[in-house]
Inverse folding.
């Protein structure tokens, strides 16, 4: 499976963006998918994840209620809809796959990392 994140850009605070994580390969629907972000000079930080079948979702506290993760396995697609964006959300966002179930914020357990997409939120 290869993953590719897209949809980033420059937006004003309070606005929305929707990021896409597109996968190739027949096994996309077997994997739980996570979104991470990396601030300049910092380590990767967990944002949200979704189970392989889309029934369970998990969010980091600072994005809970503002971000929504969803997936469509018929299109090998995972979306991250980001509302009420804040300048503190400015980061490079990437997606990755994992076989670990449940709450799983550890990037070491993820693989098939795709190239990230930059989100910049202006104040």
């Amino acid at each position: 499976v290869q993953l590719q994140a897209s949809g980033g850009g420059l937006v004003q605070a309070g606005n929305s963006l929707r990021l896409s994580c597109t996968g190739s390969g027949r096994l996309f629907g077997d994997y739980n998918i996570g979104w991470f972000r990396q601030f300049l000079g910092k380590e990767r930080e967990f944002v949200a994840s979704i189970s392989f079948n889309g029934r369970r979702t998990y969010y980091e506290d600072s994005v809970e209620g503002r971000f929504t993760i969803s997936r469509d396995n018929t299109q090998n697609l995972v979306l991250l809809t980001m509302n009420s964006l804040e300048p503190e959300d400015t980061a490079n966002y990437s997606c990755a796959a994992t076989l670990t179930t449940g709450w799983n914020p550890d990037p070491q357990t993820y693989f098939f990392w795709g190239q990230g997409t930059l989100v910049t939120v202006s104040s």
About this structure: The longest strand covers residues 17-24. The chain is about 0% helix and 50% strand. The radius of gyration is 13 Å.
